[in-house]
Amino acid sequence: MPELVDFYRVDDLLNEEERLVRSTIGRFVDERFLPIVAEHYERATFPTEIVPELARLGVFGMHLKGYGAAGMSNVMYGLACQELERGDSGLRSFVSVQGSLCMFPIHRYGSEEQKERWLPRMAKGEVIGCFGLTEPEFGSNPAGMATRARRDGDDWIINGTKRWITNGNVADLAIVWARSEQGIRGFLVEKGTEGFAAREIHHKLSMRASITSELVLDDVRVPACNELPEAQGLKAPLSCLNEARYGIVWGVLGAAIACYRSALEYAKARVQFDKPIAGYQLTQEKLVNMLTEITKGQLLALQLGRLKDQSKASATQISMAKMNNVREALEIARDARTILGANGISLEYPVMRHMNNLETVLTYEGTSEIHMLAIGEEITGIGAFK
Q1: Which residue, 89, 123, 157, sits at the end of a domain?
Q2: Chain center to CA of 165
Q3: Mind listing the pLDDT tens digit for each residue in 320-331?
Q4: Catalytic residue positions, numbered
């Protein structure tokens, strides 16, 4: 009989090392994170005490080569993201921001000095990063960013505001994107730099076990050596977002699996009208649809990972997988909530926590509408953004 959440024996398509990565991260999530996540979600805090353990697992920048990074494959990274988000989207976001949005741009666009200075310490979790692209008025259209950088002798002066920045308040280093006379450029802004402040965003109803901040840059002076020398134009930050989106493709499957398992166990145990609700046709329809969409998402993610490991994955292929898997994971969470009934809104079960988180994942790293239009432009040759 196929595994309950591996109906098409996708596990057979993985090699031993890939399965080991998944089981190692999964064990950490089960033993160290799941027992504490509900409390942190309720208090709207992130368990920073587990950061050294995450570093020892090698998940920070794990798909990068050299400079202290683990140098694993993209499929291994994806499997790790699946297990991390099975715990909570906030946990996967912490790791994804550190590796895909902060270490990756330094690795891809940084100078040798920047790589040697920052990447080994970031891989060890000694330096936490954040990614400053989104602004209060510019989310889906980052090309319109208002943050400005101007040259002043051997320094850059940066002014602007970034919003919805994961890890902002605990970050030691911010990757800040700003418009200059030479176009959009990336800068390394260190915590404690005069004029630079991070303000935590409160009153969130989603991603509560995650730190979200606003970055304020008021005449922040950084030396020219803090500019990412190879980051020229908007393509640079967008390439970072592609890295993060890839992690989401896998991560949301973890959230969907957690919801499906919870709903299935509950349906088999919950008795109404003298039999378990799993014995009713409408409940079985929901469970079958959940498993079907998880299975399709697994195959989509794995093929994307294989393409990425061959340097053949395109931005629109990543967009399609992100758009589909998040949409279906959210629908799975909503259906699971209905199976659990009133119990579905309780933190004793993971379902509504995942459901609320997925409402955010649906729109960050590109809304479904933006991904839809990006794919539409590729297949028609006609841009429909404006």
Answers
A1: 123
A2: 12
A3: 999 999 999 999
A4: 365
